[in-house]
Amino acid sequence: MNPTEHHLMDYSLMKDKQIHRGETLNSYVNNIDDHNSKRRMQPRVGKLKLRINRDDKKTIRDTLTPQVVKVMKEYLLKGRKKYRNGQMDHLGGISSDQLDRRDGTGWGSSWSGSSKVNRVLRFFPANFAPHSGDNQRGAAKRSIINEKLHRNLKQITLGAAGSGDADGERAEDAKKGAKDAKDAKDIKDARDAKNNAEAGALHNIYRGVVKLYVDITEPSLEMIWSNSPPKRVTGSGFVIEGDLILTNAHNVAYSTRILVRKHGSSKKYEATVLHVAHEADIAILTVSDRSFYQDVSALELGPLPSLRDDVITVGYPSGGDKLSVTKGIVSRIEVQYYKHSNERLLLTQIDAPMNPGNSGGPALVKGKVAGICSQLLKTANNTSYIIPTPVIKHFLLDLHKSGKYNGYPSLGVKYVPLDNANLRRLVGLTDLEKGKAVEENSGILVTEVDEEQMRYQPADVDYCAYAEGATQAEVSTGQASSTGAHALATGVDPFPRRPPTDAHCYGLKKNDVIISIDGTQIKSDGTATLRGDESVDFQFLLNEKYVQDLCTCRVVRKGRIKSVVVRVSRVNYLVRQHNRDVRNKFFIYGGVIFTTLTRSLYPDEDTDNVELLRLLQFNLFKKRRGDEIVIVKRILPSKLTIGFNYTDCIVLTVNGIPVRSLQHLVEVIDKRDGPAGGEAANMANAANMANAANTANTASTANTKEVPSTSGNANPYLMSTLENDPFLHVQEKDNLLHFLLLTSNGQQVPLVLLRNEVQQESAEIKRVYGITRERYLYNG
Q1: Can you tell me whether residue 525 is helix, strand or coil?
Q2: Which residues, other chains included, contact 110 with Cβ-Cβ below 8 Å and sequence gap of 6+?
Q3: Helix axes 135-142, 389-402, angle to 10 degrees
Q4: I need a surface site. Which of 276, 509, 644, 734 has the fewest CB within 10 A?
Q5: What Rg value do the Cα atoms of the chain yield, rounded?
Q6: For this structure, is 226 an active site residue?
Q7: What is the mean pLDDT of residues 494-505?
Q8: Left (φ > 0), alpha (ψ -120 to 50) or beta: where does 746 sit?
Q9: Is the CB of residue 383 less than 8 Å from the CB of residue 377?
Q10: Among 451, 538, 457, 571, which Cα is nearest to 505's?
Q11: What CA–CA distance (Å, rounded) separates 555 from 465?
Q12: Which residue among 109, 143, 250, 341 is the active-site one?
């Protein structure tokens, strides 16, 4: 806040005072307070306009004189402080902590002399900023992650505790329990003492777990322009440092109101959503009513648990209204698909029974949070999953570093294992293994890459030098890319820029064999060592990285070992995996509902269209930004659509123009105001010219068909299904629009609308079906 306030000053209050630079100003503050009543009675002599930097909207009630301001400037500029380009250097005297802390007791104390919290008075204009202009410091002030939580997050690592350490701790616990039982009067007394201790610890945990009452209004999947009826769901959550509440994203998706209730209380408090990570199924809530946090215990986040660790889940599952506690063990840790987002991240499997309503509650190991209860496997008994703390850590630190959520990065490749000996020989790994150039049983074959991510991106860091530095570190210290990471962190390139381009050192290509990522071996089944003898999918290696970070990959390309750099980013899937609380795009024209293919439209892949199932299941990468699959979700009965009963059809072309996205389809329809011609005619003429050029010396040139092949300009994801549009040669009459659709039975059929009729019947269609808006478009 930078308000400009006018302050009234009494010049006579300080006219007889002698001021020395080396003194603090507390004496003058007291002097003003002593004459507080007298000051209000005396006439106002002058005004001074000051710029105040404050963290809140508290007004300054006391007065300052020009002489006091002059003394302060002299004290700072000439006495103990000096400024350089807006920065402050210390020359002795009062420390920066005394000057800058909010609760300090230095010269920056409250001018009112009251018992309220002391604050530094920012009285200089911008060019006299008494604190550093460091952007990181400003981001830290805005961060919702306080210092205590930040320290807690920094302690969380992937290899925090191995299974051997866990076994040793269990053995020590068993010995201690036996000794306690022996020293006790009897075994019953020892058991009671242990139970009492556990009950006390659990009581503190219970006070940090809350129940969520969430009112949600989801968009309708059939009447896509409207909403489904409101409904209420319940879930769980828990409080962490900083007065934050962690829960699952699927608990609060499409929420209109969220109420939370503490354990042992009947009062409900309204909560708001601060940030959501749909990929990881995590959401952060807060309660504005400060009384909520009274008698609430903040739970501490613990490390990644080990196999066979005892785990306790706490929450509010269905079947009752009060808190429920279940117990089990950690049975598996691996990279799995998250049901909410269909993304692959680290996931911990436990055998503690969970039910709907447990979602969002904590799973605890040795009194610390080991994860967030998230999902269960319905086809198996007592098979539940929790979101581990390293995934939570990534989300929170991402918010802390950048002030916003940027997502979880991916390497942007699809691969197949290289377990077959003949396949390894084909790609050249066998000879390299014999020469000890690569480790045995390492390497995966890249079958598809995200072309957008692998496209060369010029940067301040020399990719070739970065890759070489990572390789040297890998050989000498075993810590790959440490030098490159330093370059990213400091912004200083430690390597000299090479004259040739470094484009050949960037990006992975199809048929590359990845043998290591940042110095960690990638095994032939696509796994990497997590800790000890535990191996999981190599995706976990990216858990420590953030969007736009660099990583170094050692690959075998055309039989030679090469190091390349990849800038990790969010996955650019063709089919959007989750709508992230946003309604699906749609465009209603003549009763035909056009929309984009997303997983949210078919959460259970419930469609008879084989091509739609293929696109939903294989998660293809986008070839170009903005690419989408446009479908006809359904056709509303009207005079215009008699005989058209198609549902779940893919839109291939509009008047012979291949459809790239919903926005493209709308532009084609809106911009074609006359008879046949325009873009379709230009495409036809261009194709005819190309055919004529290619067959200029043959007799068949005169007989060349004037209908171009639309497959050359077709959506690349549908080329195998798209045939020539048989109606492209038909001249449009009366603004006729024809759409070529791919139906559920694999047929390509036309759907025809007349522009004039659509304009005439549009109002009636909207009235009958209660359509409030005909289009809902946005980027992304």
Answers
A1: coil
A2: 116, 117, 118, 119
A3: 120
A4: 734
A5: 34
A6: no
A7: 59
A8: left
A9: yes
A10: 457
A11: 16
A12: 250
Burial 618-644 (b: 16+ CB within 10 A, else e): ebbbbeeeebbbbbbbbbbebebbeeb
Please, which pLDDT band fits residue 752 given cuts at 50, 70 and 90?
Answer: very high
> Rounded to the nearest 5 degrees, what angle is found at the Cα of 636, between the Cα atoms of 635 and 639?
110
Q: CB 780: neighbour CB atoms within 10 A?
A: 8
Task: Let me know if 64 is exposed, middle or buried by CB neighbors in 10 A (0-12, 13-18, 19+).
Answer: buried
pLDDT tens digits, 264-300: 999 999 999 999 999 999 999 999 999 999 999 999 9
DSSP letter string, 398-415: HHHHHSS-----B--EEE
In order of their start, the domains of the chain are: 198-402 (2.40.10.120), 409-458+506-572 (2.30.42.10), 586-674+713-776 (3.20.190.20)
Catalytic, 220? Answer no
Angle at 478 between CA 475 and CA 480, to 5 degrees: 85
Smallest CA-to-CA distance from 396 within 148, 208, 145, 157 is with 145
Question: Looking at the DSSP assignment, which residues form a beta bridge with residue 445?
Answer: 416, 513
Q: Tell me the C-alpha distance between 657 and 106, whole Å.
A: 73
Decide: 7 and 64 in contact? Cβ < 8 Å: yes
pLDDT at 158 over 60: yes
Report pLDDT for 705: 36
Count of H-run helices and E-run strands, the chain: 19, 32
The residue assigned the tokens 């659990």 is 202
Q: What share of the chain is helix, strand, coil (3-state, %, to 5)?
A: 30, 25, 45
Cβ atoms of residues 661 and 624 within 8 Å: no
User: How far is the CA of 496 from the CAs of 24, 470, 499, 517, 764, in angstroms?
Assistant: 52, 15, 9, 24, 69
pLDDT of residue 257: 97
Residue that has been written with the tokens 């698909």 in this structure: 337
Q: Are 466 and 484 in contact (CB under 8 A)?
A: yes
Cα angle 644-649-650, degrees, rounded to a multiple of 5: 130
* Structure token digits, residue 60: 């300054």
Max Cα distance, the chain (Å): 112
Which of 567, 309, 311 minimizes the C-alpha distance to 457? 567
From 7, 109, 263, 281, active-site residue: 281
Residue 281 annotated among the catalytic residues of the structure: yes
Catalytic residue among 359, 384, 516, 569: 359
- Is residue 91 very low, low, confident or very high in pLDDT (cuts 50, 70, 90)? very low
* Distance, first Cα to last Cα, the chain: 34
Q: 61 CB contacts (<8 Å, ≥6 apart)?
A: 112
At residue 314, φ and ψ (nearest 5 deg) are -130, 135
Three-class DSSP category at 245: strand
- 638 with 693: CB under 8 angstroms? no
Query: How would DSSP label each residue in 346-377?
Result: EEEEE-S---TT-TT-EEEETTEEEEEEEEE-
- Residues 764 and 770: their CA atoms lie apart, in Å, by 10
Residue 398 confidence (pLDDT) above 80:
yes
Q: How many CB atoms lie within 10 A of CB 27?
A: 11
